[in-house]
Amino acid sequence: MTSTRGRIDKRQAILEGAFTxxxxxxxxxxxxxxIADEAGVAKPTVYNHMxxxxxxxRHAMEASxxxxxxxxxxxxxxxxxxxxxxxxxxxxxxxxLLRLHTDGRSCALRxxxxxxxxxxxxxxxxxxxxxxxxxxQVLADRLARLALAGRLRTTDPDLxxxxxxxxxxxxxxxxxxxxxxxxxxxxxxxxxxxxxxxxVRAWGVS
Length: 206
Hints:
mainly alpha; Arc Repressor Mutant, subunit A
């Protein structure tokens, strides 16, 4: 049991260390020795867990995408019991999602995806499966429950979830210049409010 736990912990440390190095230097400029140093393990240990640098990159991207997904799904939790003021709860969720989308890990994940996708075309599917697609599914489920409770008027929760995220991320990508410009929290609040106001006008119950 202890050896199994130790192996899992080392694997996680390697993946986290790899993502840190890749995010800092890019794939081409990163080397396995630097990743081993960042993870606090010996270089052979990295190869024991991952066969080569390309495999390590794919697994590091997938692990980081899953971490961001878990955080964003947690941000949807208030929608399970939104209380009397649905707009306020939606705005709280929207703001949390914007904050998570602009944190260091998320920005690094997008930069790596944009810069390396021509060399690793499969990482788009890897990141999508552990990220946006799954998040939209969970959000659609939350919105469907609100519709059944008479809080929203939608017959297509999947579409409604897509539009909620589009109202958030469309302006965010433009204002942040695709993640290269840091936004103040006050800007994120304005964006969250505007997105929810538009969303409620389209899908809310009068």
